[in-house]
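Chapter review: from sequence to fold.
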Amino acid sequence: MSTVVLLAVTGLGLGALYFLVASGLSLIFGLMDVLNFAHGALLSIGAYGSWWAASGHLPGAGSSGAGFVLAVAFGTAVGTLAAVVLELALIRPLYQRPREQVLATVGVGLAVPALLSAIWGADARPFPGPHALSGTFGLLGARIPVNRLVLVGAALLVLAALRLFLGRTRHGLVVRAGVEDRAMVTALGIDVRRAFTLVFAIGGAAAALGGALGGLYYGSVDPGQGTSLLIFAFVVVVMGGMGSVAGAALAAAGVGLVQQFANYYTASGLGDLAVVVLLAALLLLRPSGLTGRLA
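The token string follows.
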């Protein structure tokens, strides 16, 4: 029983990490029709920004208490800024040219890890997380890492914030309307470009937050971390339904659980294969994904 509880909570923690990455990816694709292969680079930027700040390079930041919160906020802010720069400088001129858009984002996705490797080396760097989050607590006979709950809590907050943004705010409604009929919204005097930049910033912030908290989950950061997580993020987006944030949340939880249980009860590494099989089965039964709509 304790093993099942541990695997379940750990799987949900991993699923929460996948959701933080996939939510921004799903939001950007669903609202802007942009397949952003540089999304993993934004995660890596957020991870290294938080690691750099938590290592004591940023005044006031550190690896404990409020200093760690500041470090995570700094990494998230850096990733958000990088997303805005990416949208303004690279994505916006290519909105009507999807092929060049894909090639450009793939190039950024390859260049950023190479740049991080050139600056800090290709080896993984230990992530200086707070001592309070490195311990465990008891649940139904299992010892659960505290940082898994932090990831789940962060994912739930991001999910609630995104649904609130899309359904309850003026900017969210403008973006949704701009996707349906950009010319009409522009004719009404609304600058859709600003709303699209905001969406890209929110997606980048979610990815950067995932990178920062991913350092807690893995205990380290490395240049290729964003690329490896991006693969599972795409799986989550497809399974959840292209453009559905709620679907991405359900799919992320399912992928994390399947991966953890398959790795434990079968051979190590078969969890990835189990996820691929699950994806194929779902697409055969529901080609549009779990929800297939923006929500």
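Two observations follow directly from the output. The chain has a mean pLDDT of 82. The longest strand covers residues 136-139.
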